[in-house]
From TrEMBL:
<keyword id="KW-0378">Hydrolase</keyword>
<keyword id="KW-0862">Zinc</keyword>
<keyword id="KW-0482">Metalloprotease</keyword>
<feature type="signal peptide">
    <location>
        <begin position="1"/>
        <end position="25"/>
    </location>
</feature>
<feature type="active site" description="Proton donor/acceptor">
    <location>
        <position position="278"/>
    </location>
</feature>
<comment type="similarity">
    <text>Belongs to the peptidase M14 family.</text>
</comment>
<feature type="domain" description="Peptidase M14">
    <location>
        <begin position="41"/>
        <end position="307"/>
    </location>
</feature>
<keyword id="KW-0645">Protease</keyword>
<keyword id="KW-0732">Signal</keyword>
<dbReference type="InterPro" id="IPR000834">
    <property type="entry name" value="Peptidase_M14"/>
</dbReference>
<protein>
    <submittedName>
        <fullName>M14 family metallocarboxypeptidase</fullName>
    </submittedName>
</protein>
<dbReference type="Pfam" id="PF00246">
    <property type="entry name" value="Peptidase_M14"/>
</dbReference>
<feature type="region of interest" description="Disordered">
    <location>
        <begin position="25"/>
        <end position="46"/>
    </location>
</feature>
Length: 419
């Protein structure tokens, strides 16, 4: 698909476009602070708010809503882009970690580009797909340039417990919108020569991910995102895996397990095609070492190239993805099969990590229910008062929340085995 390639700038074009541009007229598309500075600094929160307000006013295909408020009173916002309501939905979560800003700036310029695009191909895409974007998932962390939020909590470890305002806002969006694809933009620090690609990605490894959803996520990675990045001149690899620089063979896993607290894995548990994307922070060349702005532009451009692949995938595999996610959301009603409380797609679960014959449901005490009812509701888990049945769309999530065998359970409820 050439739509995003016509909107997204290459490194050279980006560098040229970010200098000596006259002041913007009222009717011209707004620019990010990153673009205005030639990549010398990241877009500030006030600049983000001005850009979002401008695209909201200028384009009927864009709406901006506040979906949460941080402890420091900053807005968590959701941008919806589409020509009309569409069944197919893609959700971008940008910069959950506040010190990983390149994905956020890629998201902001993409919002702008899609809002102002006039070509028929883009409009056709947006007639069939609704793009949802949380441009700054961790506003307090971005303001402080910290990984965690203002309480020091890593939001990307809060997608099960939902103890942060930011995590709760994202859970509500996923519950209400049921996106087909959840795409999570991050950055990483390289460890040469074993772990130093321009861009890494990873799909849901959690074993409770439906097979068809898992396979679609791998296809998104291997057949779309990585080739698009490679076409733009970026090297790619699998997040969390060190490789031998001579043979390219994996030699060590340092991250990327099946832990359900992480958005990439929770995406799969909730039947969305999930993908984590990680751009390299460290300079690649002596020129980038000498010029921070050059390095920053490469970071953002690699994210934009990967987004190119995401949109190609969305356009080409729309029907397949809708079928996979739709069927996955129905499988929980069959109430059969094991539930996994450990393991990953590259790490078979131990016997103790498999609930082979799950109970019919879980019984909570009144106190337990009062403790977790808000989180159940935010997840979209259905309950009958203090009784939570397994026979529901989010069947596998129920034991992860309520079974004492699950490593991150919210409370240890009483299993109901009297089916």
């Amino acid at each position: 698909m050439t739509r995003i390639r016509t909107l997204t700038l290459t490194v050279a074009a980006l560098a040229a476009s970010l200098v000596a541009v006259p002041a913007q007229a009222a009717e011209t598309p707004p620019r990010t602070g990153f673009e205005e500075s030639g990549g010398a600094r990241w877009t500030s929160q006030p600049e983000e708010q001005r850009l979002l307000a401008a695209v909201d006013r200028a384009s009927d295909r864009v709406s901006v809503a506040r979906i949460g408020t941080t402890k420091q009173d900053r807005p968590v916002q959701l941008v919806r882009i589409g020509e009309r309501p569409a069944q197919n939905k893609v959700l971008l979560i940008c910069s959950q970690h506040g010190d990983e800003p390149s994905g956020r700036d890629a998201c902001l310029s993409t919002i702008r580009d899609l809002a102002y695009a006039k070509d028929r191909q883009t409009r056709r895409f947006l007639e069939r797909t609704t793009l949802l974007v949380v441009p700054t998932a961790n506003p307090d962390g971005r303001a402080a340039n910290t990984r965690g939020n203002s309480d020091g909590v890593d939001i990307n470890r809060d997608h099960l417990a939902l103890q942060t305002a930011e995590g709760r806002a994202m859970a509500a969006v996923i519950r209400d919108q049921r996106p087909d694809v959840i795409y999570d933009l991050h950055e990483y620090g390289a460890t040469p020569p074993y772990y130093d690609k321009d861009l890494f990605d990873l799909w849901p490894r959690n074993l409770n991910t439906d097979d068809a959803v898992h396979d679609a996520a791998q296809t998104l990675s291997e057949s779309y995102v990585r080739p698009a990045a490679a076409d733009a001149g970026h090297s790619t690899g699998t997040y969390g895996i060190w490789t031998d620089p001579e043979t390219g063979e994996p030699i060590k896993q340092v991250a990327g397990d099946g832990q359900e607290r992480i958005l990439r894995n929770m995406s799969g548990v909730k039947h969305s095609v999930g993908l984590l994307i990680e751009s390299r922070v460290d300079p690649l060349t002596e020129a980038e070492q000498a010029d921070e702005a050059l390095n920053n532009r490469r970071r953002v451009n690699s994210q934009l190239a990967a987004l190119d692949g995401l949109f190609d995938f969305t356009d080409a595999r729309r029907g397949q993805v809708e079928t996979a996610t739709g069927l996955a959301r129905l499988t929980g009603y069959t109430d059969t099969g094991p539930v996994y409380v450990g393991g990953a797609d590259n790490d078979p679960a131990e016997p103790a990590e498999v609930i082979q014959d799950p109970p019919c449901g879980y019984r909570l005490t009144d106190d337990q229910y009062a403790q977790v009812k808000d989180e159940l509701a935010l997840h979209g888990v259905r309950s009958h008062g203090t009784y939570v049945p397994l026979r529901q769309s989010l069947r596998a999530l129920v034991p992860l929340l309520l079974d004492e065998r699950a490593p991150y359970h919210l409370t240890a409820a009483e299993p109901d085995t009297g089916c």
